[in-house]
Amino acid sequence: MNRRDLLRAAAAATAAIPAGAIPNQTRFDLDIRRLNLRHKWTTVMSSSDYRDVIYTSYTRDGVTGHGEGAPIVRYQEDAKSGLRALERERARVMSSNPWEFEKLMALMFHDINYAYAALSAMDIALMDWVGQKLGIPLYRYFGLDPKDAPITTFSIGIDDPDKTQDKVREAAQYPVLKIKVGLDSDEATIAAVRAVTNKPLRVDANEGWKDKNVALKKIQWLATQGVQFVEQPMPADQLDDLRWLHKNSPLPLIADESVRHASDIPALRDAFSGINVKLDKCGGMMAAYREIQVAKAFGMKTMLGCMVSSSCTVTAAAHLSPLVDYADLDGNLLISNDPWRGVTVDGMGKLVLPDRPGLGLQRTTA
Fold first, then answer.
1. What is the per-residue pLDDT for 46?
2. pLDDT of residue 24
C-alpha cells in the first residue's frame, strides 16, 4: 500500500467513528440548548416562547449516548445551575465504568439531589450508550413490547378562546386532548374546545385551584364535559384538602406536582387515583421505572408525562410507555427546532417506538 492509499484508509476509518469519539477514550460533553415553541406556552405557573434544556453526550469506545434534561421552575431548577452541577461531577463520570451505571447514578443522586433534570440528562445519555453497546432498543432492555405503547394526548396551553380553537384544530390527528386550566377562564377555555371538538379530554390544573370547594365544583362541571380525569387540581402542600377532594370527586385525580420520587407515593394513596411520572422530575429512566413499579404495587394508575423537550427526552420516556396506562408525551411536538427524530405518532395518536439500538435517535436538520 502506497502513502496515498494509506492516507485514504486512515481517513475512511476515522469517518466511521462518530464525531468526537476516539476508541477506548471517554468524553463527556455538556451544553445548554434553546428549544423554540410553535406557540407561546402558558400554564398557571409560567408563560414563554422557548425553553432552555441541558444537553449531555457520553462517548466511550466509539459509541456516543445522548441525554437531555428540562429544568422545572416549580422546583427551583434552571439550566445554568444544572449544568454547573454536572460539571462538578465530570471527574467521577470520566473515571467510572458506564456498565455500572446504577452505582454511578446513585453517587450522583447523593451529591446533586437538587438538580433532577440534570441527573436525568446524565441517566438518559448512559442508558442510550448501554442500549447502543448491547445493540438493542431500550424498550427491549426493559423487557417491553413496543406494540403495548399507548396513545399520547396532545396538550393545549392556556390562551384566548380563538387561539385555543386554532390549536385544537391543529391537533386534529390526536384522539385525546390535554387541556391546561387553573384560572378564572377555565369555563371559557373548555367551552372554546367543545365548540370545535367532541373528543375525550384530560384536564391539568397545575395546582391552580386553591379552595377545595371551588375545586370540587369545577370538577363536577368538568365531569359533564367529557373529561376523563383531572391532573393536580390543588397545591401539593394541601394534602388534607386533596384527600377530601379525592373522596368526593366524580373524576379520578392524577398527581403531578405532588409526586417527584417513588418515596412520595405511599402518602398519596388516599389523595389520588394515579401519578404522572416525568423523567425531568425524578432524575431519569431508571428512577422513572422504579416510580412506575411502586405506583403499580399500590394499585394506582400510571402516566408518563414530559416537559417541553426535544425528541431526546420524549423518546427516552416513550421507551418506558408500554408500562403505563396513559401517556402525555408531546413536548417534542410543541417545538419548532427539534434536533432529533425518535419516537413518532401514528395517525391514531399511538406512540411508535424506534427499533434502532439505544434511544434510536437520528439527527434532523433543525
1. 61
2. 60
Name the packing angle between helices 79-88 and 116-134 (round to 10°).
Answer: 60
CA dist., res. 121 & res. 69, Å (int): 5
Residues 6+ apart with CB under 8 A from 326: 150, 153, 202, 254, 274, 301, 302, 303, 304
State which of 135, 165, 188 marks the end of a domain: 135
How far apart (Å, rounded) are the C-alpha atoms in residues 158 and 278? 21
* 144 lies in the same domain as 229: yes
Q: What is the mean pLDDT of each run of 10 residues along the chain (366 residues)?
A: 39 38 76 91 72 97 97 95 97 96 97 96 98 98 98 92 93 94 93 96 96 97 97 97 98 97 97 98 98 98 97 98 97 94 95 98 86
Q: Which residues contact 299 (CB under 8 A, 6 or more apart)?
A: none
- Whole domain around residue 245: which residue ranges? 140-363
Extract the C-alpha cell encoding 323. 408500562
CA–CA distance, 224 with 281 (Å, rounded to integer): 32
C-alpha cell belonging to residue 210? 386553591
Q: Are 295 and 265 in contact (CB under 8 A)?
A: yes
Backbone angles phi, psi at 254, to 5 degrees: -115, 130
**In the block, residue with C-alpha cell 453526550:** 57
Give pLDDT, residue 39: 81
Same domain, 66 and 165: no
Strand ranges (DSSP E) for the chain?
27-42, 47-60, 63-69, 154-156, 177-180, 201-204, 227-231, 253-255, 274-277, 301-304, 326-327, 340-341, 344-345, 351-352, 362-363
DSSP character for 18? P
Cα dist from 191 to 13, 40, 164, 179, 234, whole Å = 61, 21, 10, 11, 22
Take residue 170 and report the three cell numbers written for it: 391543529
Tell me, yes or no, whether 16 lies in a domain. no
Among 57, 104, 93, CA closest to 359: 57
